[in-house]
Amino acid sequence: MTLALQILRHGSTIEGVTAPNATVEVENLSVAPYAPTTTALVTRTKADSLGKFRLPAAAVRAGDVLRVSASGAAGQRTLDVIADATGSARRPEVEVQGLRLTAERGRLTVRNVLSNPKIAAPGTVLRFVSGTAEVRYVVSDTGLAPDALPIAAKPGDDVDVFVDVAGKRAKKRWATLTVGGGVGAPSPERDSKKAALLPAIGALFVDGVDVRDARQGDVGDCWIIATLKAIAFTRPQALKDMIIERADGSYLVKLQRWSPAKKAFESAAQIVPPLLYAANGALTYGSSRTPKELWPAIIERAYAQEKGSYDAIAVGYPYAAFEATLGVKGSHTPFDAVDDEAIWLSILASKKRATLAVTRPPKTQPFKAARLVEDHAYAVLGGREKNGERFVTLGNPWGEFEPAGDGEDDGIFELSLADYRKFFAYSCAANV
């Protein structure tokens, strides 16, 4: 027998009728790509003796896809509804960092190596483009990626991903994926025309690991570099344990990936030769603020190597970096779904749980005037109270550019809790 479920209101609050005393759960699928489902993204309640229920949905924006599930003695029922909330709609969110492409028997196969199987909300329209070939894919109600794409490709080919909204073809690509199975170094980012592979000169570590070391270069992987900073703050030894220097001068980097079959993380170790892209006497991509220190560049190259190119490591969510580097799951906390005290406690916990925070999308706040970067990941480096006001310490992966009046421009700065909530959309934390 099918459980009855009727939705009467579906805005920021969900109201409806189901079986008496049934358990009702609401998940916001439009934010599901951010991380594996956490309590911050799901709300639950019990229907009353007449079957009526009312509960808020987490971090709801107009147009969000909400999955309402009811379960009881009579069975289970699930309905998807579109949030009729006030305010502007959110942009589509798509997680492609977990996708690995391989060319098999003339077609492109796809594998997701992240613990979160949901790459986008149901109905999201993706276009995969390789050369003149193009495939349109509508994400199903499971949120899963396609198993295969009917595109002829060979190892090393790039496949651009576009996210079309409201029937309009996107002109700007969301991300680039590279077909695996190629040999040699990961290809450089498309705009890095002068980059050349040169011998890596220096030591793996110089005076240990410091939170100021890792610095982002000419690819949009703030989500990776900020993660390295956060781990350096919480447990620097974990980064040292990731890399083994081999007798032949190469490096073994112990990357991880999720195995759906094993339901556990498995090794995705990479052998990295002592060669890094450079131009005009400086490393092109990730580097260290400490002269001739190599560990950030080596870890970044290992991930680019596993993905096939530096283009393929641009655009990602922080939890994917925690999984790839240390094989641990990250939790997602949308600031619009929690109160100030919960945010403050997460800041204080950053010494024990590596934590990142991501700023809100462009044009939503006066980022330029505040000297903050929109849609950008920062490492959370603890907090303090002064004269009754709370402050968070943050680390910009650029290694520079911070609010004025905060001392040395090293990317490390303080922000009031009020401004932290104003400019930042969410945090991601992991036990490392």
Describe the overall structure.
The model has no long low-confidence stretch (mean pLDDT 92). 14% of the residues lie in helices and 36% in strands. The protein is globular. Helix 1 (222-234) packs across helix 2 (236-242). Strand 17 and strand 18 (251-253) form a beta hairpin. The termini are far apart. It folds into four domains: 5-82, Immunoglobulin-like (Sandwich), CATH 2.60.40; 99-178, Immunoglobulin-like (Sandwich), CATH 2.60.40; 196-326, no CATH class; 331-431, Alpha-Beta Complex (Cathepsin B, Chain A). A six-stranded antiparallel sheet has the order 25-30-26-27-28-29, with helices on both faces. It has a four-stranded antiparallel sheet with strand order 4-3-6-7, with no helix packed on it. Strands 11-10-13-14 form a four-stranded antiparallel sheet, with no helix packed on it. With 432 residues, it is of the alpha+beta class. It contains seven helices and 30 strands.
In total, how many beta strands? 30
| Strand residue percentage | 35-45%
> How many individual helices?
7
Largest sheet: 6 strands, antiparallel
- For the largest beta sheet, what order do the strands appear in spatially? 25-30-26-27-28-29
List the uncertain runs. Answer: none
Radius of gyration: 22 Å
Using the alpha-carbon principal axes, give the shape.
Answer: globular
Mean pLDDT figure: 92
